[in-house]
């Protein structure tokens, strides 16, 4: 058992008969009344995100987890196949366990979170950003640059991302995996 003082990003807890991962938290000490912790929890089984407030000192049931490095091999329908980088053991995971499956490129390394009690994978942590090549982008029209004008572009994994007008086919761009948004153009 842990208490609210042990709350941190990435902590997995049992809550409402499900396993949740803490995405965000904020300790609040109001001028009047008791302190509390405001959290944003993501269900590792359904992917739903909910907000919850724990009073200070509240006991929480944490789940013991381990993280292992896996390499993405290929997608087969709704199943994604990964290989453990040390033991070369291969596993197949469902598409719903992944946060951003459309940004996953073959050969990409990810961290898989395992529940040590049931020895089952809980979730897949993508890298903070990925670098992908633009395979299709309409040409930008000169004069359309009033303020932060963007256009849709397709990247090599098939995902669609809004990019600035100066991005062309063949450019490599960095994409934030948490939001799926364009970050910058990469020169290689």
Summary, kept brief:
By secondary structure, the chain is an all-beta fold. The chain is 0% helix and 54% strand.
Keywords:
mainly beta; 54% strand; six-stranded antiparallel beta sheet; 188 residues; five-stranded antiparallel beta sheet; single chain
What is the topology?
Blueprint: E1 2-3, E2 12-15, E3 18-28, E4 36-43, E5 49-55, E6 59-62, E7 65-76, E8 79-84, E9 90-94, E10 109-115, E11 120-125, E12 129-137, E13 150-155, E14 160-164, E15 172-176, E16 182-186
Antiparallel strand pairs: 1-6, 2-3, 2-6, 3-4, 4-5, 7-8, 7-10, 8-9, 10-11, 12-13, 12-15, 13-14, 15-16
Structural class: mainly beta
H/E series: EEEEEEEEEEEEEEEE
- Helical element count? 0
Q: Could you tell me how far the N terminus lies from the C terminus, measured between alpha carbons in angstroms?
A: 49 Å
> Largest sheet, order of strands side by side?
1-6-2-3-4-5
Question: Which whole number gives the mean pLDDT?
Answer: 87
Please state the overall shape, judged from the principal axes of the Cα atoms: flat
Radius of gyration: 20 Å
Q: How helix-rich are the residues, as a percent range?
A: under 10%
Organism: Flavobacterium suzhouense
GO molecular function, one term: translation elongation factor activity
Pathway: Protein biosynthesis; polypeptide chain elongation
Keywords: Cytoplasm, Elongation factor, Protein biosynthesis
